[in-house]
Amino acid sequence: MFNFGFGQDVGIDLGTATVVVYVKGKGIVLREPSVVAVNNITGEVLAVGQEARRMLGRTPGNIVATRPLRDGVISDYTVTEKMLKHFINKVCGKFIFAPRIMICIPSQVTEVEKKAVIDAATQAGARKVYLIEEPIAAAIGAGIDISKPCGNMVVDIGGGTTDIAVISLGGSVVNTSLKVAGDKFDEYIVKYIKKKYNIMIGERTAEDLKVNIGCVYPKIQDTEMDIRGRDLVTGLPKTITVNSSEMLEALIEPAMMIVDAVHSVLERTPPELSADISDKGIYMTGGGCLVDGLDKLLQEKTGINVMIAQDTVSCVALGTGKALDNLDVLEGKTPR
Prior knowledge:
Elements: E1 9-14, E2 18-23, E3 27-33, E4 36-39, E5 45-48, H1 50-53, E6 63-66, E7 69-70, E8 73-74, H2 77-92, E9 100-105, H3 111-123, E10 128-133, H4 134-141, E11 152-157, E12 162-168, E13 171-178, H5 182-197, E14 199-200, H6 203-213, E15 224-231, E16 237-243, H7 244-267, H8 271-280, E17 282-285, H9 294-302, E18 306-308, H10 315-325, H11 327-330
Parallel strand pairs: 1-9, 9-10, 11-17, 17-18
Antiparallel strand pairs: 1-2, 2-3, 4-5, 4-6, 7-8, 11-12, 12-13, 14-15, 15-16
Helix pairs in contact: 2-3, 4-10, 5-6, 5-7, 7-9
């Protein structure tokens, strides 16, 4: 049905925080932050990915380091297109044939948002664009056989969205998508530090706190970390020590929003599939699920065994790549 020797097949996990690119036959070839630095006056792209991330919060007036995706959808179309073009060129070189690209999207995006993704990828040089829902790609990437008539539950926590789906026979039976994920955790940390210590910290410091000492389930041993921020009273830089029990206070609210969403999906799941899920457990994927204790919290609140997939950050991109091998199967089910 398809001529697989023609051009390259590329799978892209277009994430709010990270872009992961899979090339058929090579595996994952690129993993970079979805940040772009643009010159405000000329509109020229100065840096993309890791280099641009270093500039976040540190640029002069004429340069803006932005994240063109917010909450899992494109918020700045032009910059997203430039970012995609940069990554596609980096991966494919100057291609003779335009690549076919499969991009994953949150499970509950609108037709307009789907069109924005397709247009951005086409403008960036794709010959044909396919879309796949994030939870389905995550399930394939986690090594779950989704073609069988039995229920699998996937909770994919990314940077901008958490996608929860019960999958059977290659499609999602019940799903939901909420805009509470890794970025929201960072926001709650910034708010907490501001409220408790009257100190303003940046996104990157909040992320460091989340990664190093963040938790949503009580730890046996408290850990601590020194951070620097701006004192809102004196306006001067100040160093404070934050411990993991404070992080628990800061992060429990967004973590419970995710648990409640999982609960509501379970309530809407047909009984036969519910039985399958209680046997097999819940699979967690995405970088956001690495917050310490999130699996324990979910297991405690649902009473169902929770497993974190291997290589969680790459799960969706791997699934997108594997789906490229079965384009003929997905043809009928993939929105274009």
